[in-house]
């Protein structure tokens, strides 16, 4: 068990009295054991940062503790915890985008059309991509390139391509700024993959 999970458990164990099943801390301790892995996987898939995902899961359980009396059993504990976690993720992303980058038409070339496809005059040479996703080393390189994007750009990629349920409206980002961020992120990703993979193989 990860140290941060043990930390959460230690908090609720210290507060639990007598282990009675109607004790909120006793119940929350059970929930930590039952649902932490699923919550962490959900957060990591949408944030792509282990430390941030761990912090979000911790704050989710602490928020559940603070509002335990409001849990009316109209949904399952898992559903309730996931709704809290999604709000925590949205709060985090709003903070990331709080100081929004604004772009003018002159800031950069519009490399992509309105559907997100490369415009013919800017399209790079095609890559040989057969079975790339089956290549562990390529996946490591791709993860490295994603991780080295500026935080806002990285999250724009996560929202667009990695099955995020979060929308740009929920984090207060305009479509114009979002597409500019995504445009720059895709271009930087391609440069990174070219230098760290395709020019080496």
Describe this structure in words.
- This protein is mainly alpha-helical.
- Helices cover 60% and strands 0% of the residues.
- It has seven helices and no strands.
- The radius of gyration is 21 Å and the shape is elongated.
- The relative contact order is 0.10.
- About 6% of the residues have low confidence.
Helix content: 55-70%
Structural class determined from secondary elements: mainly alpha
Largest sheet: none
Mean of all residue-level pLDDT scores: 77
Secondary-structure element sequence?
HHHHHHH
The dominant shape is elongated
Q: Strand percentage, roughly?
A: under 5%
pLDDT < 50 stretches: 17-22, 102-108
Cα separation of the termini = 39 Å
How does the SSE layout of this entry go?
Elements: H1 3-15, H2 24-47, H3 50-66, H4 77-96, H5 136-147, H6 151-161, H7 175-198
Helix pairs in contact: 1-2, 2-3, 2-4, 3-4, 5-7, 6-7
């Amino acid at each position: 068990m990860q140290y941060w999970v043990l930390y959460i458990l230690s908090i609720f164990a210290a507060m639990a009295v007598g282990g009675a099943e109607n004790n909120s801390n006793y119940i929350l301790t059970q929930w930590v054991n039952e649902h932490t892995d699923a919550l962490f996987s959900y957060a990591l898939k949408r944030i792509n940062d282990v430390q941030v995902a761990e912090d979000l899961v911790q704050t989710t359980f602490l928020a559940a503790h603070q509002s335990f009396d409001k849990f009316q059993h109209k949904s399952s504990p898992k559903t309730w915890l996931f709704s809290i976690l999604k709000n925590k993720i949205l709060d985090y992303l709003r903070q990331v985008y709080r100081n929004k980058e604004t772009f003018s038409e002159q800031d950069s070339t519009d490399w992509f059309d309105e559907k997100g496809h490369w415009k013919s005059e800017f399209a790079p040479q095609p890559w040989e991509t057969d079975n790339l996703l089956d290549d562990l080393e390529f996946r490591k390189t791709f993860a490295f390139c994603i991780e080295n994007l500026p935080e806002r750009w990285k999250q724009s990629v996560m929202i667009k391509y990695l099955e995020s349920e979060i929308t740009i409206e929920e984090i207060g980002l305009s479509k114009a700024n979002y597409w500019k961020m995504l445009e720059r992120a895709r271009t930087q990703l391609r440069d990174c993959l070219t230098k760290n993979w395709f020019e080496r193989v």
